[in-house]
Structures are given as structure tokens and as C-alpha cells.
Amino acid sequence: MSPKLDYRDQAIAKYLPYLKEAQKRLFHVIAVFIGGGALGFIYYQPIIKTIMHLFNLEGINLVLTSPYQFIDLAVSSGVLTGLSVSLPLLGFYLIRFISPALRAKEYRLLVRLYPVSLILFVVGFAFGAWIIQFIISLYTQVSADFAVENLWDLSGFLRQIISTGILMALVFQLPIVLSGLIQLHVLSPLSLKRSRRYIYTAILILVALLPPNDIVSLTILTIPPLLLFELTLIFNRSYV
């Protein structure tokens, strides 16, 4: 056997237990996603009714444009439920999996930031959903003033809520990413302050790509990322 092959076998033998452990954890996450997705798929009617009730869709007629849209609604409900229960578990497993490769300081930082990341994800999703609610109230009032009837596609409406909510939840991870980089001394608050104009520009471009694309929504969506960026600098001002 050549030395090259022997070295490769040793490397495989060394990392094989970690790969098996990662595979097992991944199967757990997939099982939880499938279980949560199945519940969301089965009980999609009460889930969607709850969403409609929360959004107070008075003055809006929601319609289905195809008999097969019931399947789309059930699938959307299942995916949303499955992600809600499996993503926190996936993050927990990732932290445990990479912990042997981290220094003690890096591990403590990750453990400290992860709960905050989950909270910001929920807050970001709720903020994205609130934006949709705000636009609904605004446009419904305008339609009532002009005596125009509102007919909205139910599947498209739910997709708008999910997409906007998830995208805003990801945007709300900005403080976690920046705080981690600052506390690991990859970035410094001073360098971020000096690059503020470019960061603001990048945030504006990012928000412009998010749905919905009307001027009112874009104005409101721009405020949280800018505030989060400035709050991140304040909370990490001691790291130089």
C-alpha cells in the first residue's frame, strides 16, 4: 500500500466518527422537520384560520383561483411548521458539533449569542408579518375611500407573509454576525464606523430587494437594520 493511500485511510478513520455523529444528528433534524411538517400539513385549516384572524382581514375577500390551491396551502403550512420546530434544533446540534474545534472563548461566545439569535429571528419574523399587516390596513382604507373591492389570492397572501417574515428574520441576524466578528477581533467598531456610509448603502440595497416593494414598506423596512447596526456598535464599543 502506498504512503498516500495509507495517509488517506488514516484521515478517513480519524474523522469517520464525527461524520457518523453529524449524520445521526442530521437525521434527527430531518425527522423533527418531517414530524412538524406533517402536523402542519394535517392541521393546515386551523393554522391558516388563525393567521387570517391575526391579520384582521376585514374588507378583504380572499379567494382561491384553483381547486388545487388547498394542497398548496397545506404544503405552505407544513413547511412553516416544520421549519419552526427544526431550525432551533439544527442550530443547537451545529454548536455541539463544532465545539471541539473551537477555543473556550469562541465556544462561550457562540453559546451566549445563540439564544439572542433565536429571539431576534422571532422578532424579525414578527416585524415582517407586521409590515404586511400595516400595508393591508393602509391599502384597505384607501380602497374603501375609493369604494373599490379587494380580491386577494389566499396562496399568494400566505407566501407574502412567509417570505417577508423569513427575510426580515435573517436581516435581524445582523447584530449577531457583527458582534461575533467584533468580539473575535475580525472587525473593530472603529472600522465599521469608518465604513458606515458603505454599510448604509448596502443595507438600503438589500432592503430594496425585499418584498413588498412599495415605497411605504421600503421606508419602514429600512429603519430596523440601520438601528440594529448602530446598537451593535454601542453594545460592542469596548472592543477595540
What class do helices, strands and sheet pairing give? Answer: mainly alpha
Element-by-element helix/strand order? HHEHHEHHHHH
Major β-sheet, in short?
2 strands, parallel
What order do the strands of the largest sheet run in, or round the barrel if closed? 1-2
The amount of beta strand, in percent, is under 5%
User: What share of residues is helical?
Assistant: over 70%
Distance between the termini: 53 Å
- The backbone outline, from C-alpha atoms, is flat
Give the number of helices.
9
Q: What's the alpha carbon Rg, rounded to whole Å?
A: 23 Å
Please tally the β strands and state the result. Answer: 2
Q: State mean pLDDT (0 to 100 scale).
A: 81
The total number of structural domains is 1
Provide the low-confidence segments as ranges.
Answer: none
Essential attributes:
mainly alpha, single chain, 240 residues, two-stranded parallel sheet, 80% helix
Detailed description of the structure:
This protein starts with a helix and ends in a 5-residue tail after the last helix. The protein has a two-stranded parallel ribbon. The chain has helices at residues 3-42, 44-54, 69-98, 104-145, 154-171, 174-183, 189-194, 196-208, 215-235, and strands at 60-63, 150-153. The chain is mostly helical and 240 residues long. The relative contact order is 0.10. It has one domain. It contains 9 helices and 2 strands, in the order ααβααβααααα. The mean pLDDT is 81.
